[in-house]
């Protein structure tokens, strides 16, 4: 997530292209906001004290960016088959990513013996 978040700032134009037109404002603003969110979520997951909340935020973020993946698949429907396969293949990957994030959140709650994500270490 940290690498993806960083790439939103270093190479923003591919992300700009998949921002749904319905969103208000400039695509670049949404690219930067989603990159910052990915960086924040990555940092929260890395820290045991905030891992549970970070993982729950990751699940929400994976769900929130799904419309951009759908837009990309729709925009690329006339591209060569190998490119279409990549973007179409990304669509079902969101579900396991959300599942992974929820498992991390569940595990973080179990690690502490509490369900609030605060580590006693």
What would your notes on this structure say?
This protein is mainly α and 121 residues long. It has helices spanning 2-10, 13-17, 27-46, 51-64, 66-75, 81-90, 94-112. The protein has one domain (2-112). α3 (27-46) packs antiparallel against α4 and α5 packs antiparallel against α6. The two termini are 25 Å apart. The model has no long low-confidence stretch (mean pLDDT 90).
Secondary-structure map:
Elements: H1 2-10, H2 13-17, H3 27-46, H4 51-64, H5 66-75, H6 81-90, H7 94-112
Sum this structure up briefly:
This is DoxX family protein. By secondary structure, this protein is mainly alpha-helical. The protein is built from seven helices and no strands.
β content, as a range?
under 5%
Helix content: over 70%
Low-confidence stretches: none
What is the N-to-C order of secondary-structure elements (H for helix, E for strand)?
HHHHHHH
Structure class: mainly alpha
Q: What is the average of the pLDDT values?
A: 90
Number of helices: 7
Which descriptor suits the 3D outline?
A: globular
Number of domains: 1
Largest sheet: none
Q: In angstroms, what separates the terminal alpha carbons?
A: 25 Å
The count of β-strands is 0
Q: If you compute it from the alpha carbons, what radius of gyration comes out, rounded to the nearest whole angstrom?
A: 16 Å
């Amino acid at each position: 997530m940290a690498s993806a978040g960083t790439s939103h700032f270093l190479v923003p134009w591919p992300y700009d292209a998949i921002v749904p037109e319905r969103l208000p404002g400039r695509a670049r603003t949404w690219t930067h906001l989603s990159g910052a969110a990915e960086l924040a979520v990555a940092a929260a997951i890395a820290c045991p004290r905030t891992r549970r909340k970070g993982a729950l935020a990751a699940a929400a973020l994976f769900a929130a960016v799904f419309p951009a993946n759908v837009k990309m698949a729709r925009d690329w429907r006339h591209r060569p088959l190998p490119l279409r396969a990549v973007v179409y293949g990304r669509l079902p990957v969101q579900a396991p990513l959300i599942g992974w994030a929820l498992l991390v959140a569940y595990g973080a709650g179990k690690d502490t013996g509490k369900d609030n994500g605060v580590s006693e270490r």
